[in-house]
Specification:
The protein is an alpha+beta fold. Helix content is 28%, strand content 27%.
Length: 164
């Protein structure tokens, strides 16, 4: 199920999809995301599509996309499960969110995130978490949508795996 929004130049559609139906397109867009904002301190981008598909089959993944003229231009992917500290609370943790730079000038990202929130809420999700990279901070947009900055995340590479 999706919604359609007409723009002067093109049509945007927003929908929730099973992740396995668009791996090739999502991989291409994920590579653009990695080039732009990826943490390059590990070996390389190497998405575990099988694991995403397993989560999807178990009802623990929610994938929302934005399309322009039939091409995926943005995604918001969430892992959905009960919270380990609040076992009666269903939560969604953002795994990835990205929109191609050429569509960011409009309200595509805003509409994608609103659409995802509506879908997650309809699923029974009580709380949604986003992590925001410092290099492409979209916290202001999340604040506009009513989200609060509640926590910071720190990371450190402690070992690089030899791929030879």
């Amino acid at each position: 199920m999706g919604i359609f929004v007409k723009n002067e130049r093109s049509f945007y559609t927003y929908s929730r999809i099973p992740i396995g139906t668009a791996i090739t397109e999502l991989q291409a867009l994920a590579e653009r995301e990695y080039d732009e904002v990826g943490q390059k301190d590990l070996d390389r981008l190497n998405i575990d599509w099988a694991r995403y598909s397993e989560l999807n089959a178990a009802g623990k993944l929610a994938t929302f996309i934005a399309k322009r003229d039939g091409v995926i231009v943005g995604y918001a992917v969430f892992i959905v499960q009960t919270h380990i500290h609040y076992q009666d609370a269903l939560v969604a943790a953002n795994s990835a969110v990205y929109a191609a730079p050429e569509v960011r000038a409009g309200r595509v990202v805003l509409k994608l995130l609103r659409f995802a929130e509506m879908g997650l809420k309809a699923q029974g999700v009580q709380k949604i978490y986003y992590h925001v990279k410092r290099t492409k901070d979209f916290g202001r947009l999340l604040g506009h949508l009513g989200y609060q900055d509640v926590e910071r995340m720190y990371a450190k590479v402690v070992q690089i795996k030899d791929v030879n």
